[in-house]
Every structure is written in C-alpha cells, then in structure tokens.
Amino acid sequence: MIKTFAALIILMLSFSMGVRAQTPSFSPATFTAQDQVTLTIDVTSTPMAGVSQAYIWIWANPGGVGPTPNGTVNGQWSASDPSAKMTSVGTNKWSFTFTGTTLFGLAPADLHDFGFLLKTVDGSKQTPDFKPFKFDPLVFTPTKLRIFPAKVDTNDVVMLNFDRSLGATVDEQRMTPVSATVTAFDETGTQVGSSLTVTITQNTGTTIWKGFFIPNVSFKPATGHVLQKFHYKFNGTVLDTGGNPAQVSTDEAEVFFVSMK
Amino acid sequence: MKPSINYLFITGLIVLLAAGCKPENYKPLGKATTPITSLAGTWKITSVTQKDEDAANKGFPYQQTDLTSVFPYTDFTLTLNMNGAMPTTFTTSPGSSPRIISLAGGNWSVDDPAYPKVLTLTSGTDTAKVTLGAYPLGASASTLKIALAKHDATSGKLLISYSYVFSKQ
After folding, report:
1. What's the number of domains chain A is made of?
2. Which residues pair with A200 in a beta bridge?
3. Nearest CB to A153; choose among B150, B155, B157
C-alpha cells in the first residue's frame, strides 16, 4: 500500500514537472531594442534537458508586425554559429545576452518583439518556441487597449484605457462600453480569485473609456505565491439585427507586473 | 569776494550726505528658519498625482494623471510628532483611502536634521521612506508635499512617481 502511494506521489510530481511551463526571465525586466538584456531559461522537462551545450536560435517580430529576420548569431540549423552558444547558469539553466538592434540588424522602430528556442549545435534536439517577448517601445504607438502607467507593480494604481476609434473589429468600433473585466494570475499561471469588474467612464469629448484598479487590493494570491500578470478587456453593447442590445467584448490584453522598489 | 557756484554746490552736497548717513531702521531678522520643525503636526491629503516617468523621459503622450478623486485619498492623514526639533513618533490613518504608507505608526527620522529631504518611517522591522517635495514654510506653511519614486528593481530606472499634497489640520 505504501509503495503504491509513493509511486502515485512520484507519478504526480513527474506529471507536474512535465507540464510546467518554462518562462524566461529577463534582466533588466524591461528593455528597449537598444538596451542590452540577458535572458535566462530553464529547459527542464524539454528535449534539451541534460545537454552539455546549448545554442540559441532567435528571430525578430513573431508577433506579426515588422520584418522577421533571424538573429545574426544563428548560423545554420545543422551547424549553429559559435556566437550563439549559451552560458550555463545552473542545472538545465542557460542564459544569453544581446542587444536587439545589433542582433537583428533592424532599426528600433522596426523591432516590436522576438522569439527564440534552444537547440544543440547540430539541431538534433530543440526546445519548443518561446515567443513573443516585447521590446519596450521607443516610439509611442496608439493602441486600442492601453494601461497607464505603461509599466506597473502590484501596488500601483492602474488605469485601463480603451480607444474605440482604434478598434479592430466592427463590434469594437461600434460598441458602447459599459465595464472592464480584469483577471489576475500568479507566477504559476493560476488565476487569482475571481475576475474583477471595473466601472468605467468616458473621457469627455473623446472615444476613450477608462477605469481604475489597484492589483494587490483587488487580488490576493495564495500564501507563498505572488501576482505575476493580469488580463483585461472592455465589455459593452451593440444592437443586433433585431435592434436589441447584444453583449460584446474587446480582445484581451496581457500585462506583466514589473518589480519596483 | 563771492564764493564760486562750484564751492556752494560741493558744500551743499556734503551737508546733504552727512545728513543722510543715519543708521537704517531694519526690522529684526527673527529666528533662523528650521525646516524640520515645520513638519510637525497632522496632515491630510488634498491631491494625488501619478506620473509615468518613463513616458515623460521618452516624450510620450499620457505622462501624468490626477488620482485625487479616483480613490478616497483625501481620507488619509499623517501625524508627525516632535520633541523640539527632534522627530519622535508618527501615526497614519487611511480611512477609506488606499494606504500610501503601509505603516500604521512608529517612529520617524530624517536624513539631515537641518535640511531634511528623506523621511524614514519605522515600525518594528518595517520601514518606509518618503521624499519631501517642499518644506511647509512661508506662504506655503500649511502645505506639505511628499513624493514617492518607484524604480525598476533590476535596472534602477525611474519608472513611476507619485506626488502627494497634504494640508495641515
């Protein structure tokens, strides 16, 4: 009985490790395309676990905006360039330092995000893709969903904004916004508490609606966990073909908290 | 022999100068200004401003917003007690306001006793530091300005600042 129970525990632990999502960390946490940044990734439970050497394969703008060149360090898939070799920083942990504009040979305005994977020098083993990771913009680009300030910690006042004039769909362009919905997650990706409905108001004379919340007031992660990110969207009504109000929502935007002191 | 006009003019000028050389009746200077003593008292928030320092640094639009009426910040009071020119204890009372200072009470100290800029609030092992925006002196004696700057924990880059204006109770 004890052996069965122990086997069950081991099986559960193995399963939890197997499904654990690897999230790279960046130092500094926010960076522009002109800043040097070091990414660190744990490849435990990927085909790259246990390898003695790892190479990065990195490319620009997997988010769908802008040119998509490979990193100048990549080399060939079957023969990575030595400059793509990553630095071991612990068991199954690797890091790589780069500057976006140099690595991709693009102007800052053309660099929005990037993706990468880890591979062996000959490409016989590789991790899944990790993407997209955004560069901090150097040029302001209006977007339909925006927060103020652009970077927030868990104890900041966050203003959610929706600019209807920048809506990408007919529903977004003609909806009458009535509320916003915020959903928070901890560092394991687990939702924290229930979603929050935020009261919104329209900026006078504009097509912008806004609402406020304070993350650590509205969301309390379980003991031993921390808030890592939140999703938000705006909700509203449109008239359907029968002239009756129908509920619609915008896309969801994702925001990661920035640790501040 | 008649005195020349020049002689009369010079004599008159000397008389006038001699008559003008009297001590000025300046008012007393009064006590030397001691900014730290002006901090004592109970202060209540009257306005809160949040600034996206990174956006301001980049020249982006949407650089700051007034939060005063977004949440009931005007409930928040801070009491700074002193013994002469020595800081002693403090208390905070948030009411329904977000806790801009997480500590309920304790002791406070300053970085420079003569011209303080940073106030350190201590409660047990917890501390909170706030930066003075302006001394409550002169025409602004009933106004205390406090600033809170938030930096990226990794890079140290200034990202957000909050400005709190208090009114003396």
Report:
1. 2
2. A211
3. B150
Please tell me which residue, B35 or A143, carries the higher pLDDT value.
A143
- β-bridge pairing A55-60 and A113-119: antiparallel
Residue B9's CB is within 10 A of a number of other CB atoms, namely 10
- Chain A residues with CB-CB distance to B58 below 8 A: 138, 140
Whole-prediction pTM value?
0.73
Those residues with Cβ within 8 angstroms of residue B56's Cβ, 6 or more apart along the chain or in another chain: B63, B64
Domain that includes residue A107, residue range: 24-134
How does DSSP assign A83-118, residue by residue?
Answer: GGBPEEEETTEEEEEEEHHHHHT--GGG--EEEEEE
Decide if B70 and A258 are in contact by the 8 Å CB cutoff. no
> For the segment B83-95, what is each residue's pLDDT rounded down to a tens digit?
998 999 999 999 9
Do A130 and A164 have their domain in common?
no
Residue pLDDT, tens place only, B132-144: 988 888 888 899 9
Last-in-domain residue among A134, A167, A192: A134
Domain architecture of chain B: domains with CATH? 35-168 (2.40.128)
Nearest CB to B154; choose among A28, A152, A214: A28
CA within 13 Å, CB half, A39: 27
d(CA A112, CA A152) in angstroms, rounded, equals: 20
Q: Any idea what the CATH number is for the domain that residue A55 is in?
A: 2.60.40
Please indicate whether, in this complex, the C-beta atoms of B152 and A214 are within 8 angstroms of each other: no
